[in-house]
Amino acid sequence: MMALLRTEIVKQSRRTRTYVALGLMAAIPIIITFALWANPPDNFGGGNGPGDGFFYFAAHGTGLLLPAAILLVMSRFLLIGVAALFAGDAIASEASWGNLRALLMRPIKRGRLLGTKILIAVALTCLATFIIVVTGLIAGGIAFGWHALDVGPLAFVRGAPPYQSVGVLLGHLALGSLYVTWSLAAVVAFGFMISTMSDSPAGAAAAAFGLYVTSAILDNIDAIGSIRNVFPTHYSDAWTDLFLHDHLSADMLRGTLLQIPYIIVFCGIAAWYFRRKDIMS
Amino acid sequence: MTTGTATLGDVAPAASTETVVSVRGLTKRFDAAVLAVDNLDFTVQRGEVCGLLGPNGAGKTTTLRMLLGLIHPTAGEMELFGARVVPSADVLVRVGAMIEQAAFVPHLSGMTNLRLYWEAGGASFADADLDTALGVAALGSAIDRKVKTYSQGMRQRLGLARALLGRPDLLVLDEPTNGLDPQEMRAVRQLLRRVADQGTTVLLSSHLLSEVEQICSHAVVMDRGRLVAAGTVGDLMQASVSAFVEVDDTARASSVLESMPGVVHVSEEAPGLSVRLDGAERWQIVDALVGAGVKVSTVTARHRLEDAFLGLLGEETER
């Protein structure tokens, strides 16, 4: 397994695609930081979701909150796209190159190949989130400094604690980042499943992104009712409670548990399908 | 029986009857309408160079893919060196293979592709037969260039090199000279003969009958997924007797011969005619032509795999 893992790391580390995707994860936080520094918001309105305005406004006060604000923006689109790309590419790219048959004739066990490929996809997704947060922290520190957050004047933000120390902010940031990464699990697992079925990495990535978009759109339709609670994106933003209310919310727990059945089902189908697949590419 | 692992550097082992490839009742149905391989049986013994022949769609590549664990058979059994073939079977470590066009990770160099392929199996690159592989690839400094910059011929040679990295006991090649120029094709033929002389069993599919005739000791002929014939190339060629005649009027000669009993096929082949015989003797051909006023300048007997192949497929079609 380790030998195969090493060879997969070499393959990924020499791909332009990897550097472009991860480069974007570093570039966007710098652009957002610059935008906030050049045009600081004068109130906590704006944004696409409840509490968004708080993040943009408060991030101007401390660079420790800036990565959270950036993560909030990127976890709704670009980070999903990158995770879908890494997952969709896993097996389908080998098939599209025609290299899959060479690996299986080496012979590499199909289960071992699947395990290694998903490990790489998950590692790259974690790395993408890590780069966003670290770049945000560095850029935020340079632009706004690393201070404790004093939200006293914003007491009307319901439930917002008046003060969060540097340590608390860092803790929230670490936990929030883990949650964001974990909440991508359904998309990654779905992309991986499609990747075992397709010879088109772009198609598999698009399908994974499509799952996210579909879930996000349907989640906004109240008429669908409580069934929305099982959509994979339903609790995606629950981590913001850490900063807004200074505690782990029940929604975070639900969001964490919700990913598990998706992982089991999608990865289970991927394994079942790939073991029986006729390799024609 | 010699069962040791032959390497390219070894002295040729004594002839052996070890069955390297055994295919029994192999069937592959892709869906209700497509029966790609139909109840196929054949064996390949150690040291043989066996050609898998057949027209496009005969099921050659599907058979090779099943033999390498890439495709699941619908029915039947396959064994390599006595071990049942399943996907990623351990026995495949004794096999070097190239199926269809050689394919690689395009953004990596030829050398990195060889190294990663080898190391993915958990082996040290130092244990690979790199000298032989690089000799076969004959890429020079281009071995360090990205594969996406390679021509088809370069990729094909690199594919052969990859197949030979592990000093295989069995080499399975699907159209190995595809994309190669005549000089490269000749080099590959010489290589395969050398490899076989050193004890490696070779199973290859090819459209080029002259190539099979030159390289192979045995052949398996397939058509529409079924076995048509199997045996030594010599026996297969003897099964079909042809004659080549040079005449002054090919159209008239063709008409005379086509109506003659014991002649199954007449085709124009400049500067004369190729005549496939099934009962008729050469002197009878000459007699009939001269009797019809056709001047005959040359008559030669001919035993070619191509004639045998066409004859076998013709019989199969009539069935």
Give the arrangement of secondary structure elements.
The complex is a heterodimer of chains A (281) and B (319).
Chain A: H1 2-13, H2 16-38, H3 52-59, H4 66-74, H5 78-97, H6 99-105, H7 110-144, E1 149-150, E2 163-164, H8 166-182, H9 185-197, H10 201-219, H11 241-245, H12 250-276
Antiparallel strand pairs in A: 1-2
Helix pairs in contact in A: 1-7, 2-4, 2-5, 2-7, 3-4, 4-7, 5-7, 5-9, 5-10, 7-8, 9-10, 9-12
Chain B: E1 19-31, E2 34-45, E3 49-53, H1 60-67, E4 75-80, E5 83-84, E6 95-98, H2 110-120, H3 130-137, H4 152-164, E7 170-174, H5 182-197, E8 201-205, H6 209-215, E9 218-223, E10 226-232, H7 233-238, E11 241-247, H8 250-258, E12 263-269, E13 272-277, H9 282-291, E14 296-302, H10 305-318
Parallel strand pairs in B: 3-8, 3-9, 6-7, 7-8
Antiparallel strand pairs in B: 1-2, 1-4, 4-5, 9-10, 11-13, 11-14, 12-13
Helix pairs in contact in B: 3-4
Rg of chain A: 20 Å
Helical element count of chain A? Answer: 12
Distance between the termini of chain A: 24 Å
Residues in helix, % of chain B: 25-40%
- Shape descriptor of chain B: elongated
For the biggest sheet of chain B, the summary is: 6 strands, mixed
* DSSP summary, beta strand count of chain B: 14
Radius of gyration over C-alpha positions of chain B, nearest whole angstrom: 22 Å
| Helical content of chain A (DSSP H or I, runs of 4+) | 55-70%
Q: What structural class do the secondary elements of chain A suggest?
A: mainly alpha
Which quaternary structure do these chains form? heterodimer
Largest sheet of chain A: 2 strands, antiparallel
